[in-house]
Amino acid sequence: MLTRRKFVAASAAALAAGTAARAQSGAEGWPSRPVRLIVPFPPGGGTDAVGRILSARLAEIWGQQMVIENRGGAGSNIGAEAAARSTPDGYTMFFAAFPLATNKFIYPTLSYDPIGDFAPITLIGTFPNVLVVPNTSPAKSVKELIAHAKADRGNITFGSAGIGTSPHLNGELFIRMAGIEATHIPYRGAGPSIVDLIPGRLTFMFNTSGALLPHVKAGRMRALAVSSAKRFSAAPELPTVAESGVPGFDVVSWYALFAPVKTPPAIVAKMHKDAAAVIREPAIRQRLEGLGLEVVASTPQELATFLRNEMTKWEPIIKAAKIVAQ
Question: Is-contact 71 40, C-beta < 8 A?
Fold first, then answer.
């Protein structure tokens, strides 16, 4: 006998199956031409490298070329705006990074909505920043750096790759949570800031593992900790800032894939399924980890939550530090 409960359960199962079937059929025949991946940074950097690894493998799976379009400038806003304004037909994807969560609070006017203009696909992975000091620094730990900063109040500086960048915001959060004072010195990229840190013209700085660990291993500077909540697999000997005297400190940079917001849901679902599968492939995973990435391959819903949490986290820090793009 088909009871009411069984009837409801059967109806729900049939509805779910029908929805899945319609989603699958809605993506049939896609892609039938090249897919564009907008990368909001110049070619040659770590962001570009990750984008090219994934796009090359997706092109093999889809049987269509993936065209990398580098749209650098304005703290990634040029590329983000281009992606947001693209026709939502399934032939544009956006390779987003940390600035998508922070630029809304840094730039007085923004021509796109970080949440409303994009459909999340997957969080590719995260990576911490590394806290370093010159070899001449008296600090050999985070606690010693904090003690040194408190003892030498007014003379502490930290460098970054530019105003509003992840290393800058790492530093701003650190000085607030550690209860110290430090003057921010912005540079045009990581290279010049590293040049000034090595001889001791800066007290400390945060930057990516890729930019700093080679110098640490070569003995040109001293690493104290990583910014993430968990230790970094590429440098497990380094403690976290949180376990080194600043409880609750947790900062990661990240890469993610989005599509223009009105892209057909069935196509977004296929983009997610295929991209997540590629990210998890052992060979691809190994290459990504070689670039310092902690692989995630999230669901679209998890990425949406992650982005909102990042924006909620950084808004008060940016406003308190009065950070405005110049």
Answer: yes
- Per DSSP, helices labelled H in the chain are 4-26, 46-62, 77-84, 99-106, 142-151, 166-178, 190-197, 209-217, 265-280, 282-290, 300-320
More confident residue, 44 or 156: 156
Radius of gyration of the chain (CA): 22
Task: Locate the domains of the chain by residue range.
Answer: 33-127+252-320, 128-244
On the CB side of 184, CA atoms within 13 Å amount to 22
Nearest alpha-carbon partner for 123 in 288, 250, 265, 244: 288
User: Would you state the pLDDT for residue 234?
Assistant: 87
- pTM beyond 0.90: no
**Bridge partners of 118?**
260
Among 94, 62, 25, which Cα is nearest to 264's? 25
User: Does domain 128-244 sit in CATH 3.40.50.720?
Assistant: no
In the chain the first and final C-alpha atoms are separated, in Å, by: 72
Q: Which fold has domain 33-127+252-320?
A: D-Maltodextrin-Binding Protein; domain 2 (3.40.190)
